[in-house]
Amino acid sequence: MPERPSSAPLVRRTTHALLADDRPIRLPHTEFDGGGVRFLGESVDPALFPLSATELWHACDGTRPYRSWPSPERELIADWHTAGLVVAAPRPRSQPSRALTVLSPHPDDAQLALGATLARFGGRVVDVFSHETWTRRPHYRDRPALASRLLVAEEHVACGVLGAGLTVLGHVDAADRPAWRDGYFLGPRSVDAARTTEPELFERVAADLATEVAGGGPVLLPLAVGGHVDHVLTRQAVLHLIAHKRLEPERVAFYEDMPYSLFADATAEAGRLAIGPEQVAPVPVLIPASEAAVRTKHEALWSYRLQVLDAVSRRIVRHGRQLGAPGWAERLWVLPESADTFGELAAAAAEEAAEAG
Question: What is the separation of C-alpha 231 from the centre of its chain, rounded to a whole number of angstroms?
Fold first, then answer.
């Protein structure tokens, strides 16, 4: 009989304990092979996850508060949370969700950039290039169909933690498109290539986004810091809608792509945009966040196990502290027409952060 692989140590990014009203959500990377449990392709210690707990595992779907389980089951769920097998959504927000629409080139982009804003205000994430197969995990590199399914499943969990809706458009990631086989990062003077290289795709994306942004409400889109072609294509499609009067500029703000904004110049990227008849560039607005919102963002980022490194999540959190010092913030770039809309959003966020102080 072949020897079973040894159980891999499970390490948790965050160390906070589950709160009574938290809603545990199981992560989708768990496999049951009849004789044991695997997580991310590695065996899980039966003491941590006995097969008899499978029903409890499936009950962790984000609908039940932690306090609702009997004590022995709470202890096991707490162990899973400590080990990183489940994440925790906070209790549903008491205030109604704002009608934010965040356009995310890929699963995880909206949450990396605006997780705290989504935690505070809710809204809806629209994933554009959501058919991905790339992963850092060797176990999944030879299983592209499984990797693709899990990447979208991670996105559902993260949106569950943040209390955000999700729409998945299903366009293919640049890494899997022949046009970008040799590299998919564009220089500042090459942004037109996002449209001219794949004109039919550009038209399909623009048509899809026109449908998704119809009906009013603020729209947040990537600034395209770093030049990833899918980020540029998403941004240019929205600018196309503005130019053709299918989206009002007063509804629009740009967010700083993460982790690219950690090492590229967001100010320079914003300065290269020239929008509307007056050819104006957007200016920065900070959206403060409470410690509770920061915790929720960090919790949501734990869902992304196939692509996002622990070090990246931690650095993004540190970056938010640097932006908002002495508090914490995420940064948007707004046009003169949208300054009032997003100024009100910033004021509401600042008020909550001060009250939570």
Answer: 14
Which residue, among 5, 161, 162, has the nearest Cα to 86 in the 3D structure? 161
14 pLDDT above the threshold of 70: no
Long-range contacts of 92-99 (CB under 8 A, 24+ apart): 92/163, 93/120, 93/122, 93/163, 97/121, 97/122, 97/123, 97/163, 98/122, 98/123, 98/217, 98/218, 98/345, 99/123, 99/124, 99/216, 99/217, 99/218
Q: Which has the closest alpha carbon to 316: 333, 331, 334?
A: 331
Q: In which residue are the tokens 């919102």 written?
A: 293
What's the confidence (pLDDT) of residue 267? Answer: 93
**What is the rounded CA–CA span in Å between residue 43 and residue 54?**
15
* Average pLDDT over every residue of 170-174: 97
Taking residue 55's Cβ as centre, other Cβ atoms within 10 Å add up to 7
**For 335-357, what is each residue's pLDDT tens digit?**
999 999 999 999 999 998 888 76
The first and second tokens of residue 139, run together, are: 């176990």
- CB of 131 closer than 8 Å to CB of 144: no
Identity of residue 11: V
Cα–Cα dist 314/354, whole Å: 23
pLDDT for position 2: 36
- CB-hemisphere CA count at 13 Å for 236? 21
89 vs 60, 61, 86, 248, 356, CA distance in Å?
Answer: 11, 10, 10, 34, 18
Q: What is the mean pLDDT of the chain?
A: 92
For β-strands 101-104 and 124-127, DSSP reports them as parallel
**Higher pLDDT among residues 352 and 234, named by residue:** 234
Mean pLDDT is lowest, of 7-11, 136-140, 173-177, 197-201, for 7-11
